[in-house]
Design a protein that fits this description.
The chain has about 425 residues and is of the alpha+beta class. The protein has seven helices and 22 strands. The chain has three domains: about 90 residues, RNA polymerase II/Efflux pump adaptor protein, barrel-sandwich hybrid domain (OB fold (Dihydrolipoamide Acetyltransferase, E2P), Beta Barrel); about 70 residues, no CATH class; about 200 residues, Chloramphenicol Acetyltransferase, CATH 3.30.559.10.
């Protein structure tokens, strides 16, 4: 017998460490070559590590939630023969993009309901399969055993394909189980649950804490009459032909891009360690998007160069990519300004958290119809509050308020969207 040490390989992103999200093996397990060992999360993605050898697991690096360094021992395996000639680990298989930075909840903001998101997963050959009336489900023996212990029917767990992973179970228990998890044969009273904060939820927690810890936020809110721009949106959709249907979001982005050059301090990133603010010429707009796995911020590159139809198409493409797990790492980083909204769920006002190291985030709120004085008359108008949160270290309150007033003028006079 011989000992083989599987060290965590360099995943190729220039990272120094990764978090153990889930184990697929335990000490004492007999494993085969290419069998999944563990899911590891970096700042960019969750990857599945596979064993390059067959044998018996004799040691593992830690528990789910632990962070280990690249190059350190992940799993020790006892093999039947000497396998010291295994020079490197197999290429890890990407499973799903990780959240980049977290802000408020769903984008795009739109009057129409948004279809529920789908948990992103990567497809791979299944270890086992069962049939269900509405779809086939595949899952590893470890996932099946865990689901059985939890009393979860795998046919209820949403995936982008048919393969259910530990991350899908976590998402189902946290967000997707309707009335929540209930042990089998339990009474109506639910037991307390202790859920370890790991994986994407841990990234969200860490980024939110860092943003609030380092950035002195302030939020300014103003009311905007969107009656005219909503009427324009309806007319454009009635005559769109084969173009992507417009929500309010692409029109708001055009208004943002038209007004931001007058306020360059808002389209910026602050390196507080170096004491340097970079004011960006291009608007790389992040849009906070809720997925079943957690909040992601895909980025619309050079948004100032796109018209409303191009923006509508790009918004749809990026949101779908984030939700089904196909977004590339470069599509989830590099934003210079972020927009976030709860969409039709809305609210009177929000105080969104800045997507660090950016210095501002814009939050349109729910559209409501209310009576309003227009001259001497009372009319039914569509109104929307718009929030902006800023980093008070580099943005003054006067500048934030002045920017919202400029944005308000364009939104309330929508012909300006198409003026040079």
């Amino acid at each position: 017998m011989a000992k083989f040490t599987f060290n965590l390989p360099d995943i190729g992103e220039g990272i120094a460490e990764a978090e153990i999200v889930a184990w697929h093996v335990k000490v004492g397990d007999q494993i085969s070559e290419d069998q999944p060992l563990a899911d590891m999360m970096t700042d960019k993605a969750t990857v599945e590590m596979e064993s390059p050898v067959a044998g018996i697991v004799t040691r593992v690096a830690g528990e789910a939630g632990d962070v280990i360094a690249i190059g350190s021992m992940l799993v020790e395996i006892e093999t039947a023969t000497d396998v010291s000639d295994v020079s490197h680990a197999p290429e890890p298989k990407a499973e799903e993009p990780a959240v980049v930075a977290t802000v408020a909840d769903e984008v795009p903001q739109a009057p129409e309901p948004v279809a529920p998101p789908v948990q992103p997963v990567a497809e791979k050959p299944a270890e086992a399969m069962v049939s269900a009336a509405h779809r086939d489900v595949t899952a590893s023996p470890a996932v099946r055993a865990r689901a059985k212990d939890l009393g979860v029917d795998l046919t209820d767990v949403k995936t982008a394909g048919g393969h259910v992973r530990h991350a899908d179970l976590d998402a189902y228990l946290s967000y997707g189980s309707g009335q929540g998890y209930r042990p089998p044969h339990s009474s109506a009273k639910r037991d307390d649950e202790v859920i370890k904060v790991i994986g994407m939820r841990r990234r969200i927690a860490d980024n939110m804490a860092a943003s609030k810890r380092h950035i002195p936020h302030f939020t300014y809110v103003d009311e905007i009459d969107v009656t005219a721009i909503e009427a324009m949106r309806v007319d454009l959709n009635d005559n769109r032909g084969t173009k992507t249907k417009l929500t309010l979001l692409p029109m708001l982005i055009v208004a943002i891009c038209k007004t931001i050059p007058q306020f360059p301090m808002l389209n910026a990133r602050f390196d507080d360690e170096a004491g340097v603010v970079t004011r960006h010429g291009s608007v790389h707009l992040g849009m906070a998007t809720q997925t079943q796995a957690g909040l992601m911020v895909p980025v619309i590159r050079d948004a100032q160069d796109l018209n409303i139809w191009q923006l509508a198409s790009e918004i749809s493409r990026l949101a779908n990519a984030a939700r089904n797990g196909t977004a590339k790492s470069e599509e989830l980083s590099g934003s210079t300004l972020t927009i976030t909204s709860l969409g039709p769920l809305g609210g009177i006002a929000t105080t969104p958290v800045i997507n660090r190291p950016e210095v501002a985030i814009i939050g349109p709120n729910k559209i409501v119809e209310r009576p309003m004085f227009v001259g001497d008359n009372i009319e039914a108008r569509k109104l929307m509050n718009l929030s902006i949160s800023c980093d008070h270290r580099v943005v003054d309150g006067w500048d934030a308020a002045s920017y919202v007033q400029a944005l308000k003028k364009v939104i309330e006079t929508p012909v300006l969207l198409f003026a040079d």
